[in-house]
Amino acid sequence: MAIERTFSIIKPDATRRNLTGAINAIFEKNGLAIVAQKRIWMSRAHAKKFYEVHAERPFYNDLVDFMVSGPVVVQVLEGENAVAKNRELMGATNPANAAEGTIRKLFAESIEANSVHGSDSVENAAIEIAYFFAGYEIVG
Ligand code: RTP
Ligand code: MG
Known about the structure:
Layout: E1 3-10, H1 12-16, H2 20-29, E2 33-40, H3 44-50, H4 60-67, E3 72-80, H5 82-90, H6 103-107, E4 116-118, H7 122-132
Antiparallel strand pairs: 1-3, 1-4, 2-3
């Protein structure tokens, strides 16, 4: 299996409830190393651009409002099959549909305030990592 990197965000609903450590423990326990991490408060422009693929969706404006409502923790996770592994650990977008033991089942408040973001492909992971991190900030 390939060693991959994926991009992760611990969203404002989770940072607000001091869940960063609990979420990181799940990543680390499951073979994902945190090779870059920083706590930031995203600007509206940055959040709008990040979620541009959803610009036409009815939830876009609410989503941007939510993502700038408090600090987030942006991360690069590294490990075997990291993209798919992280999606599995996160669980379904809507916590009502998320499997037992997943981050969203454990912690998400709603389909929007769902505690974490994870890249959905290796290609998008590279784009998203480059959007938030300089090369020297990632220490594998
Ligand atoms: P993410 O991009 O955050 O990892 O989540 P995802 O792939 O599971 O879900 P996606 O379809 O890409 O949607 C991005 C984020 O938009 C919010 N959302 N709200 N109100 C709604 O119906 C709705 N649907 C999606 C969620 O915060 C979702 O994670
Ligand atoms: Mg997505």
